[in-house]
Amino acid sequence: MKNNNKAFFLKLLSLSREEWPLLIKGMIFLLISSAALMVYPQYIKAIIDNALKTKDINSLNYAALIALGVFVIQGISSSFRYYYFTLAGEKTVKRLRAKLFSQIISQEMPFFDFSKTGELLGRLSSDTAVLQNALSVNISMLIRNLVQTIGGVILLFITSTKLTIFILLIVPPIAYLVAVFGKKVKSISKSTQDALAVSSGVAEESISGVRTVKAFAQEKWESDRYDNQLQKSFNLSVARISVVSKFTGAVSILGFVAVVFIVWLGGRFVISGEMSIGTLTSYILYVMTVAFSAGLLGSLYTDFMSAFGAGHRIFELLDTATVNEENFHKPLKNISRGLIEIENAEFSYPARSDVLVLKKLSMKIEANETIAIVGSSGAGKSTIAQLLMRFYDLNSGKILIDGLDIKDYDLYALRNQVGIVSQEPILISESIEDNIRYGKPNATLEEVQSAARLAYAHDFITAFPDGYQTLVGEKGVQLSGGQKQRVAIARAVLKDPKILILDEATSALDSESEALVQAALENLQKSRTTLIIAHRLSTVKKADKIFVMDHGQIVQAGSHGELILNNDGFYKKLIEKQFNN
Question: Which of 162, 331, 347, 513 has a CA that sits 20 to 30 A from residue 430's CA?
Answer without folding.
Answer: 513
